[in-house]
Amino acid sequence: xxxxxxxxxxxxxxxxxxxxxxxxxxxxxxxxxxxxxxxxxxxxxxxxxxxxxxxxxxxxxxxxxxxxxxxxxxxxxxxxxxxxxxxxxxxxxxxxxxxxxxxxxxxxxxxxxxxxxxxxxxxxxxxxxxxxxxxxxxxxxxxxxxxxxxxxxx
Length: 154
Hints:
single chain; Jelly Rolls; six-stranded antiparallel beta sheet
């Protein structure tokens, strides 16, 4: 897991594979973002712009991915994320890894939470448990972008 600021991307991008910069340019170009899936490089790199209703963290499930790296970026308000950089210790509650690259799990022991402000980002690598969409103070609506990079691209 890595946390950063879009405002520092020009300085920080040298630490990342070039495919990360291709993904980040989608957000940095300044075009209006409309909800939906946006192709950047076919199925290898794409963006999912979403208007989400945040929920109390206890109402959310943790998730993992196998094929894609997530770069999650809240845009219109803060968003709380749960995380644990260890593999799940039990079977998933919902397993859609084959078709949607996601498996959902209950809150793991030892998980931590962090709050990202608009235009901060967090990178979750395959196998890292994370719980997006958690409310900070009270549930609300947040516009966010999830950049997806197929792991075999790096």
